[in-house]
Amino acid sequence: MRTVKVQFTWWWLQILAVQLTLIHAIPPAAPLQCQDGGAGGCTLFNSYGVWNDRRDCRVLNATYPKTEQELVSAVAYANKNKLKVKVVSKFSHTIPKLACPDGGGGVLISTSEYGSGIEIDEAGLAVTVDAGVGLRQLIDAVEAAGLSLAASPYWEGVSVGGLISTGSHGSSWWGRGGAVHDHVTGVSLVVPAKPSEGYAKVVRIGEKDPLFNAARLSLGMLGVISKVSFQLVISSNSWLSG
Ligand SMILES: Cc1cc2nc3c(=O)[nH]c(=O)nc-3n(C[C@H](O)[C@H](O)[C@H](O)COP(=O)(O)OP(=O)(O)OC[C@H]3O[C@@H](n4cnc5c(N)ncnc54)[C@H](O)[C@@H]3O)c2cc1C
């Protein structure tokens, strides 16, 4: 009886070992795929494309700026050529139709390569980040400085620009509450401009600006968010270790 039990366990361990070597966790494919380097158009998929309102979105082309200046050039090009434009993040967790310009006839600006800028002001308990920065990347950076975001959705695979534009939230009644945009203190927007201004410009919108509430929760309708500033709190990890 004891031999049968040992053999049974041995077989289970072998099956488990085979499964562990065959199964690999891989991140979802990039939601924006372009054919022939963009010449054949691009398709925006939803990372979780299982719901029927998450149909793919076809666009004429897509651009991948790396700096705020390149974002300005992308908006200027679209404005000059009278193209409809919307923004999509590296993650695209929202329904594609939210990020689909002109029912598919326009162009997309992806923030997937615009995510390196994180400037922490430790004394002022504040951080200013590029809109393409991922939430996990932001949390790691501020925690390393002994600070924390005051609110966060439970899902980390989202960008700063996408999460504030859609009013993403956790759950808290403490302080200003669990909606991330309620902890935003400033937004920089790239907006279309007159030809004499180069067809696009950056506007910096602070808390006292009458456009502030619209700019921080815009569903991507007011321009391209280039930078976002957040008020931070002292990390609870610092209290525990200090
Ligand atoms: C598994 C899962 C769990 C989730 N959990 C939560 C949760 O706990 N709480 C919650 O509130 N939400 C949750 N969500 C929803 C998620 O937070 C939102 O869908 C969020 O908008 C996704 O961010 P994104 O970076 O993928 O944005 P995208 O889907 O790329 O974009 C969202 C919208 O913002 C616009 N946008 C993006 N970047 C910019 C920019 N730089 N400038 C201007 N407009 C821009 C786009 O045009 C689009 O309209 C969850 C989603 C999933 C799939």
From TrEMBL:
What keywords does the record list, in alphabetical order? Ascorbate biosynthesis, FAD, Flavoprotein, Oxidoreductase, Signal
Pfam families, A to Z: FAD_binding_4
Q: Where is the signal peptide?
A: 1-25
List the GO biological process terms.
Answer: L-ascorbic acid biosynthetic process
Q: What class of enzyme is it?
A: oxidoreductase
What the entry lists under SUPFAM superfamilies is as follows: FAD-binding/transporter-associated domain-like
Domain of life according to the entry: Eukaryota
Signal recorded as keyword: yes
PANTHER family the UniProt entry points to: GULONOLACTONE OXIDASE, L-GULONOLACTONE OXIDASE 3
This protein's name: L-gulonolactone oxidase
The beginning of the lineage is:
Eukaryota, Viridiplantae, Streptophyta, Embryophyta, Tracheophyta
